[in-house]
Design brief:
The chain is an alpha/beta fold and 570 residues long. It has 16 helices and 19 strands. Helix content is 35%, strand content 15%. The strands form 6 sheets. Strands 5-2-1-9-19 form a 5-stranded parallel beta sheet, covered by helices on one side. It has a 4-stranded parallel beta sheet with strand order 10-18-11-14. A 3-stranded antiparallel beta sheet has the order 6-7-8. α8 crosses α12, α11 packs antiparallel against α14 and α12 crosses α13. The protein is globular, with a radius of gyration of 24 Å.
Length: 570
């Protein structure tokens, strides 16, 4: 019997298994499936596991999870696999357009995903499905078969689908220096990764620490929230309509959190509710136009030297939205064409100066302004508008540009621009940004060193100095900058061995694995068809938009399942 290995059963691996079984049942075929997952909650995986801190919030609203659809009944090998509800059905979602969006802790979505996995596999027979609770360390390809090796066993398979998520990469020079420094001195410490948050239990209730946090994005917010929801204090929402928040201390503490990044720019929160979010929504006609313009380039081998095929459509949509905001937008006397030109300049250089763009001279005031924009209480700046329009366009971009036939350098530039947009498009909930302000007001979080401070090592830890020549001493450093999926820098044994054996290669030296539209790997070094498919973060470059939870349930998984079943013998 044909044997398939699915390596990684997080959300993407779960949906791959679902689509595999659906397609096998339609074709009246059956195989043996070996599922490898080291975490003890398949479906949830390492990101969504249910025994994690409440400080880890989802960064997608429950309203937006309407596209996390349920699973149909599956008849497979004379067994009935029951259906499973959509996320909205599972939580009995109901919300008015003007009610603030809700962002539950990650572990809530983890419960949904794990329950969905359990309902899928409980009806499968052992000879057709086996869960192997081990990490795969190596895959070898010999005599047209794959040998999948864990620490204790090896398994022979005909095909493999790799759906593993975030993998460790080579530490940066800076983090290596910090770790060596901490090892050489007592009473200081460096955390090279901010997850899991449970590792901070030993420090979160200490009252006399200055903690530096490298990074000023979503992960920093999780760390901040975890460290300050402690024995001495907690957050209290004092205005539910805007999530205005105070930090309430029940005992004096001298904890100080000092985040910093290369540019010091804060994330902008998502709109407070559906009513405000709809201000930025492109029309169906605009999204079709956007799709057509992208595919006219990405589906051909046309030579392009700029990102005009992407930025011009976005500028037209964003300009139309901004003009139609009228009194909700910052005051101006520009026509739509002039706004388009300004959007193009900003997309080319986000430091473009104009009174319609947010003034970032004060980080605190910038955060406050974005909160008011997101809440419909202040005039919308053009940069905030562009970011929200980009977010609405992202699903079309991800679908239309994946597996583009363009020069690798252009693909890299598209991904870089999308990454830059995430300060807005992947923005946190309003409440998260209100918590930052509450901690600043409580003199616990400092924004004084947020913009690329000078960092010096000393016997007491680290000294940070800002542009105003203010200094602060740091006892503990936490790295909250998540590694980019650069294939050649990944240190996980499964990946390093695949590269060494010429079974995978990157689409670009700075990106992930080169794959076909059906997810199977492309290698120039090996002339054989390698029966390995890759879905997810490690294929970034071949596909884009790999990090979003809804992408784990997107069309690329269906494309792989159909292609895999179609090539099976009768």
């Amino acid at each position: 019997m044909t044997t398939l290995a699915i390596i990684g059963i997080g959300p993407r691996g779960l949906h791959a298994l679902e689509n595999l079984l659906i397609n096998l049942s339609r074709a009246n075929k059956h195989i043996q499936i070996l599922a490898f997952e080291p975490c003890h909650e398949p479906g949830a995986g390492q990101v969504w596991y249910t025994n994690q801190s409440d400080a880890n919030w989802t960064n997608i609203s429950e309203r937006a999870l309407k596209n996390l659809e349920g699973r149909q009944e599956i008849h497979y090998r004379d067994r009935l696999i029951e259906g499973f509800p959509s996320y909205h059905e599972w939580i009995n979602f109901a919300q008015s357009d003007k009610a603030p969006d809700t962002f539950p802790p990650r572990k809530q979505l983890g419960r949904y995903l794990h329950e969905r996995y359990e309902s899928l596999t409980k009806s499968l027979e052992h000879d057709s499905f086996q869960l192997i609770n081990s990490k795969v360390e190596r895959i070898e390809f010999k005599q047209q078969q794959l040998q999948v090796l864990t620490k204790d066993n090896s398994y022979i398979c005909d095909d493999a689908l790799i759906t593993i998520g975030h993998q460790p990469t080579e530490l940066s020079k800076q983090i290596k220096e910090w770790k060596a420094h901490a090892k050489a001195h007592q009473n200081i410490n460096t955390f090279e990764d901010c997850y899991p948050l449970s590792q901070f239990e030993s420090i979160k209730n200490q009252k006399h620490l200055n903690i530096g946090i490298r990074g000023f994005g979503l992960a920093m917010i999780d760390v901040m929230r975890d460290l300050t929801t402690n024995s001495f204090g907690t957050f209290r929402v004092v205005d539910p309509s805007t999530f205005k928040t105070q930090y309430i201390s029940n005992e004096a503490q001298h904890l100080k959190l000092i985040p910093f990044s290369l540019d010091g720019l804060p994330m902008a929160p998502k709109p407070l509710n559906k009513h405000i979010d709809d201000w930025f929504k492109p029309t169906d006609e605009e999204l079709n136009y956007f799709k057509t313009e992208l595919e006219a380039v990405s589906r051909t081998q046309i030579k392009v030297s700029s990102l005009d095929f992407l930025t011009i459509p976005i500028s037209k949509i964003a300009a139309r939205v901004f003009v139609e905001l009228k009194s909700e937008a910052m005051n101006h006397d520009l026509n739509q064409k002039q706004i388009e030109t300004l959007v193009l300049k900003w997309l080319d250089d986000s430091e473009t100066k104009h009174h319609l763009f947010q003034d970032n001279s004060s980080t605190y005031n910038t955060i406050k302004s974005y909160i008011q924009m997101a809440s419909g209480l202040a005039s919308i700046s053009l940069d905030y508008c562009i970011g929200q329009v980009w977010r609405h366009c992202q699903p079309t971009l991800y679908k239309s540009f994946s597996h583009a036939q363009l020069d690798e350098a252009i693909i890299e530039k598209v991904i870089a621009l999308d990454e830059e947009s995430k300060r807005f498009s992947y923005g946190p909930p309003v409440e998260s940004m209100q918590q930052i302000l509450a901690l600043v007001d409580a003199n616990i979080l400092s924004l004084d060193y947020v913009n690329d401070p000078d960092i010096k090592l000393n016997d007491k830890g680290w000294q940070l100095e800002n542009a105003q020549q203010q200094t602060i001493q740091i006892d503990i450093m936490i790295n909250s900058v998540l590694d980019a999926p650069k294939l050649l820098e990944v240190t996980a044994p499964i990946i390093t061995n695949l590269i060494h054996n010429d079974l995978i290669e990157p689409i670009h030296s700075k990106l992930g694995i080169d794959t076909k539209p059906n997810a199977y790997v492309i290698t120039e070094e090996n002339n054989e068809d390698i029966p390995i498919a890759v879905l997810g973060r490690l294929s970034k470059g071949s596909v884009i938009g790999v990090d979003a939870i809804l992408e784990c349930f997107g069309p690329r998984i269906k494309d792989w399942a159909e292609a895999y079943v179609n090539q099976l013998g009768s």
